[in-house]
Amino acid sequence: MIARVARSRHILLVLAIAGFHMLVWERGLAGDGWGYFSTLESMIEDRDFDLGNNRYEVFNGLSYNATVQRWVAQYPPGLAIFDAPFYMLGKLAYAQGWVRPAIAPGKMRPAYEKVTSETLALIIFVVLAHNVYALLTLLLIYATLRRLAFSPEWSAFVTALSFFASPLHFYAQNGMSHAVSCFAAAATARLLAGICVEPGGRARRWFWLGVTVGAGAIVRYASALLSAAVGVTLLALSWRRPARLVARGLLYSAGLLAVIWILPVYLKLQVGEWFASTYSPHWHFEPNAPPLINVLVNPRHGFLLYHPLYWLALAGTAVALFAREGVDRAQRLMGGAALAALISLGLVYGFWFAWWGGDSYSQRFLTDAVPFLAPPLALFLTRGRRAVRVSAALCLTAVSYGFFLLSNAGLVYDVVPHGPGQTISDYRYVLDQGLSLSDVSAALARASFTLPALHRHALPLGALVLLGLGAYAWLGRVAHREAAAGAAAEGRP
After folding, report:
1. Predicted confidence (pLDDT) per residue in 153-187, tens digit
2. What is the C-alpha separation between 405 and 332, in angstroms, rounded?
3. I want to staple 330 with a disulfide (CB 3.0 to 4.6 A). Which of 71, 113, 196, 341 is the partner?
4. Signed CA dihedral, 170, 370, 159, 200: sign only
């Protein structure tokens, strides 16, 4: 048992750091999270889809449907399904008196002014759910990299980058849908990696692959587009064997349908029609901001500008697809899957009228591509002059995390009070105002809900950190002794 924990010490450290990040920067429901929470509350408390009595001060995602003459949610029901166990746990915790939360007057935001202590407890548990799904996402990314034969050290390092250098470091601690849909995408990537490593394995894996894509699609409709990554892999593996291609395609489709039937049933119950979605896509083409280009490199929330580490991931896809040496078949296939995932999501969202994601942080629409981009990123970092590549990766990650910190602290130009910047130029605020490092630090401290409590318990918290680092070092010695003993048993030097 101890030996197994010792072998997992790197990813355990990453999970601990990510967990601490989320504890410091919990944001409540935030924006669309209110609409998702209203749906969940209505389904559990009222057992209906009439949200007329479940509206709060933020109306994101809610609309009045004239056909059924009631307030309904624009979003699919998947997030409510994933969040329901945590919501029920919150109800139990409040009923038992384990939690009685309150917001300090200086931290109160308008959306929470009419929220009761019990509802606040439920909100906290919903956000906790997304913390948990984000951590599970990291575990799945790590498992994907290990399945592709990357070492534990490199797998943990790239997993950490996947969190802190992507939009996930923001959406892991609020009530929006991206942490959960990214969890489903990470499950898809993990299964796909296993298939790429062992193409001749059990065929039923294609069914479960469909289940994971369906799970993402009932959270966010566009997550069904990850079928493109699956399709590219299926064609690459089976194009010379039409019978196998059809059989596995049918298995995948069966898995997808095993989950996605929830959507038409939900719409029938919600608005009386099987396919009358309440979410209108509003497709739009802008000649000056063409699809895919806009979501990737536009100053208005361009993914590769806010998260420049992913230039290295794109370089990794080029290595995966075109390098003649040092890339095995599974890594090559996952490079193609990563490119298919990024392009399919980017093209569809790029045609949406609000391709920049609205008044939100960064390019949130491409979060689901992050688990697929981890393998080519790892491939790039483990080749060539590693010290140079790792240094570049850390610097680029610091840029992403710097945007996150400034946004959280409200130190950006924006039309939304204390909201995120809408373009890269909005982040000039600190320089334009001539703010010192102490000014920035003070703004960051004010922006956190939990830092005051953490500060009050700084001594035991510091002791806990030292204990954790000591345990990490001790586990390293255990792993080293185990490796030495194994080498001696095999007669290796």
Report:
1. 999 999 999 999 999 999 999 999 999 999 999 99
2. 35
3. 196
4. positive
